[in-house]
């Protein structure tokens, strides 16, 4: 969702910068965690006895700042082009955070939204995408995952899914996927009875 369908970067940066400052975490320590659940980031950066309070704090910061959350290029066209019954969001957000960001961005909400609260292990583990596929009634090997972060792409490959990467938050050379494009505005969707196909738009 974040960085793939919606641009929440300004809000994310504000929240995590404030949190890092409060916890004496440097920008270098915070780097490289995009696409991972907040709980995993907190666990990597702080001692165990600080986890609960630190996680509560970042959740509060993120839930109360949804300014500037908007759809990314191509998102509305993509969600309009694809049947709702074949689309899911699988996000590292908590359920409350996913709800407020979907509402703030005003993107159409799919029937299937899988959050970190719905799985035992978040990205880079495959659980979010396997859960989304199961709720869609789909074989994971017949699913396409659209991602903007290496952790999400690792999770998608582990789930056996095809991958499409967008360069909205991560440099192209760091994205290992079946197809890499700048954004969803750069792909063409075709839907038929056999499934959904995607191809890069030609200049």
List the helices and strands and how they pair.
Elements: E1 6-7, H1 9-22, H2 27-30, H3 38-45, H4 51-63, E2 70-71, H5 75-81, E3 88-90, H6 95-105, E4 112-114, H7 127-136, E5 144-147, H8 150-159, E6 162-166, E7 179-181, E8 187-192, E9 195-200
Parallel strand pairs: 3-4, 5-6, 6-7
Antiparallel strand pairs: 1-2, 8-9
Helix pairs in contact: 1-4, 3-4
Structure description:
It is a single chain. The protein has 203 residues and is of the alpha/beta class. The protein has a single domain, classed as HAD superfamily/HAD-like (Rossmann fold), CATH 3.40.50.1000. Helix content is 38%, strand content 17%. It has 8 helices and 9 strands. It has helices spanning 9-22, 27-30, 38-45, 51-63, 75-81, 95-105, 127-136, 150-159; strands at residues 6-7, 70-71, 88-90, 112-114, 144-147, 162-166, 179-181, 187-192, 195-200. It has a 3-stranded parallel sheet with strand order 5-6-7, covered by helices on one side. It is globular and about 50 Å long. The chain starts with 5 loop residues before the first strand and ends with a strand. 40% of the residues are buried.
Produce a short descriptive summary:
By secondary structure, the chain is an alpha/beta fold.
Defining key terms:
single chain; 203 residues; alpha/beta; Rossmann fold; 3-stranded parallel beta sheet; 8 helices; 9 strands; 38% helix; 17% strand; HAD_sf; sugar-phosphatase activity; hydrolase; HAD family hydrolase; HAD-like_SPP
Q: How are the strands of the largest sheet arranged?
A: 5-6-7
Low-confidence stretches: none
Quote the average pLDDT. Answer: 93
Q: Count the strands?
A: 9
CATH architecture heading: 3-Layer(aba) Sandwich
Tally of separate helices:
8
The biggest beta sheet, please?
3 strands, parallel
The number of distinct structural domains comes to 1
- Characterize the overall form: globular
- Structural class label: alpha/beta
Mind telling me the CATH class?
Alpha Beta
- Fourth-level CATH superfamily: HAD superfamily/HAD-like
Report how far the terminal alpha carbons are from each other. Answer: 27 Å
Rg over CA atoms, rounded to whole Å, is 17 Å
What fold name stands as the CATH topology? Rossmann fold
- Helix content, binned percent: 25-40%
Beta-strand percentage range: 15-25%
Give the H and E element order: EHHHHEHEHEHEHEEEE
């Amino acid at each position: 969702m974040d960085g793939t369908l919606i641009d929440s970067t300004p809000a994310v940066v504000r929240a995590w910068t404030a949190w890092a400052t409060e916890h004496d975490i440097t920008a270098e320590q915070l780097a490289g965690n995009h696409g991972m659940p907040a709980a995993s980031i907190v666990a990597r950066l702080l001692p165990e006895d600080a986890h609960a309070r630190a996680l509560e704090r970042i959740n509060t910061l993120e839930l109360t700042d949804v300014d500037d959350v908007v759809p990314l290029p191509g998102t509305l066209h993509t969600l309009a082009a694809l049947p709702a019954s074949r689309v899911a969001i699988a996000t590292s957000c908590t359920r409350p955070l996913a709800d407020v960001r979907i509402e703030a961005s005003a993107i159409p909400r799919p029937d299937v939204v899988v959050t970190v609260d719905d799985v035992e292990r978040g990205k880079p583990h495959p659980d979010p995408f396997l859960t989304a596929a199961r709720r869609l009634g789909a074989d994971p090997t017949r699913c396409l995952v659209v991602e903007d972060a290496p952790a999400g792409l690792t999770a998608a490959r582990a789930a056996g899914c095809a991958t499409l990467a967008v360069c909205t938050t991560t440099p192209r050379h760091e994205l290992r996927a079946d197809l890499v494009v700048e954004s969803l505005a750069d792909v063409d969707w075709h839907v038929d009875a056999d499934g959904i196909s995607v191809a890069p738009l030609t200049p």
